[in-house]
Design goal:
The complex is a heterodimer of chains A (about 375) and B (about 100). Chain A is built from 11 helices and 10 strands. Chain A has about 375 residues and is an alpha+beta fold. Chain B has about 100 residues and is an all-alpha fold. Chain B is built from 4 helices and no strands. In chain B, helix 1 runs antiparallel to helix 2, helix 2 runs antiparallel to helix 3 and helix 2 packs antiparallel against helix 4. The longest helix of chain B has 28 residues. The chains are: A alpha+beta (about 375), B mainly alpha (about 100).
Chain lengths: ~375, ~100
């Protein structure tokens, strides 16, 4: 896709940052499970944490396409840093931007957008992943407070977030109409981050349980309308899919980059790998699929920027980019042979990181349901 | 669609097992078995990686954690797939045999 020059200039800027500052840190973040606070600070300084948010709310005043490019370029070298960026911008910042009152925006959106505070989004529960209607966390209005009880699981940045948007129901038997969205601040009595997940990949990203035990939050922390939680999280996930698609694309591009370099620089039985059809075939498939994924991701972003419906295209972008991403990263390891399964090359990390893209923010199975509904009609 | 993944995994495993037994039976009989062994090796390793990926997917978020063994199966499968011969080496060897 031929993009306006301003996007390519922006890409260069993020690419420089990613190559020079993120890439050298990536293997160590993966090995030590360390959270990259230093990189978060740098991304905040560069204005990357809320690219599509207007300047008056602390954002960069740019658009979703710019944001997708940023996630792609960071993801190309480090999935962990990429998922932080995607989760903070799409799941932490976005719900408050789209559903917050002016007061909530002043209080929460501005520090999140500036990167002074870390954001997170608590939707998934131990027994309600793909089926969010099964939310068990309860919110009872008692006087001027909501009293929250329940547990969230697999929450990206949950353990380090300062401001968390989450969903809870006034009655678990009501399904979607019972669910509302709320904001809770770190340190609120009765709220704590529980177990941290020990994961296959994205090991430099923190994934936590969130535990609410008679946690009182003020009435004004309701986000959106009472019973409007479904709308808030559907809109949030729609946008989030673009960023997960962008991250899947970035990781796949990283796998392709490493494979190209490996093929160009190595021989088999005296023959350059690039002259061997088996390698040509693999690289051609990867390159074609990565390019197609890029078009789908950018298309979804452009539709969202234009204010047009984009639900189907975002689901397609996430589904396709993560599917071909897993294939591309798997293939990249095979191209590198035994080197590919060592930490000398980034491709084994790319596969481990990429696999989450088929699971998080709606599994591929859920994306297919969303796409089929749009294609077939309800 | 979990059903579809389970069916696909099972079909591949059954086919891989038959290829492996076929190669072993040929070797036991003293027949030429190199092509059958390469085919079984290719199919079994690819099946292991395929099933590792699908198993993580079937488990969803849980499959991505060390609470379940499936992420380890995926990592082990990917390693075993590349020991001694890569899939591309095996394909070349099998093709050579088939086309000679």
């Amino acid at each position: 896709m031929i993009l306006d020059q301003k996007y390519e200039k922006f890409r260069e800027k993020v690419n420089d940052f990613a190559s020079q500052q993120v890439c050298p840190r990536a293997p160590e973040l993966d090995r030590s499970d360390e959270f990259p606070w230093d990189l978060v600070k740098k991304m905040a300084e560069m204005g990357l944490l809320a690219l599509y948010v207007p300047k008056k709310y602390g954002g960069a005043g740019l658009d979703v396409l710019t944001y997708a490019i940023a996630v792609e370029e960071v993801g190309r070298v480090c999935g962990s840093t990429g998922i932080f960026l995607a989760a903070h911008s799409s799941l932490g910042v976005f719900p408050i931007y789209v559903a917050g009152t002016e007061e909530q925006k002043q209080k929460y959106l501005i520090p999140l957008a500036r990167g002074e505070k870390i954001g997170s989004f608590g939707l998934t529960e131990p027994n309600a992943g793909s089926d969010a209607a099964g939310t068990q966390t309860t919110a009872k209005l008692v006087g001027d407070n909501y009293v929250i009880n329940g547990t969230k699981r697999f929450i990206t940045s949950g353990g380090i977030a300062d401001i968390i948007v989450f969903t809870a129901t006034k009655d678990p038997t009501l399904g979607y109409p019972g669910i509302s969205a709320f904001i809770v601040e770190k340190g609120t009595p009765g709220f704590s981050a529980g177990k941290e997940e020990d994961k296959l990949g994205l090991r430099g990203s923190i994934t936590s349980e969130l535990v609410f035990e008679d946690c009182k939050i003020p009435k004004e922390n309701l986000l959106g309308k009472e019973g409007g939680g479904f709308t808030v999280f559907m809109e949030t996930l729609d946008g989030g899919r673009i960023s997960i698609g962008a991250l899947a694309l970035g990781i796949a591009q990283g796998a392709l980059d490493s494979s190209v370099k490996f093929i160009q620089n190595n021989t088999k039985a005296g023959k350059p790998l690039k002259k061997l059809q088996a390698y040509q075939s693999m690289i051609a498939e990867m390159a074609t699929e990565v390019e197609a994924a890029r078009l789908l991701v950018y298309q979804a972003a452009i539709l969202k920027d234009k204010g047009l419906p984009f639900t189907k295209q975002a689901a397609m972008a996430k589904y396709y980019a993560s599917t071909i991403g897993t294939k591309a990263t798997d293939m990249a390891i095979s191209i590198h042979g035994m080197y590919g399964i060592t930490k000398e090359y980034p491709v084994e990390r790319f596969l481990r990181d990429e696999k989450l893209m088929e699971i998080g923010e709606g599994t591929s199975e859920i994306q297919k349901i969303v796409i089929a509904r749009k294609v077939l009609g309800k | 669609m979990v059903q579809e993944m389970i069916v696909d995994m099972n079909t591949n495993i059954e086919a891989a097992r038959l290829l492996m037994y076929d190669a072993a039976a040929r070797a036991d009989k003293g027949d030429a078995f190199s092509s059958a062994a390469n085919t079984a090796r290719l199919m079994n390793a690819n099946t292991a990686v395929f099933c590792g990926l699908k198993a993580v997917q079937v488990h969803g978020g849980y499959g991505y954690t060390k609470d379940y063994p499936v992420e380890r199966y995926l990592r082990d499968a990917k390693t075993i797939q590349l020991i001694t011969d890569t899939p591309q080496d095996l394909k070349l060897a099998i093709a050579k045999e088939l086309l000679k």
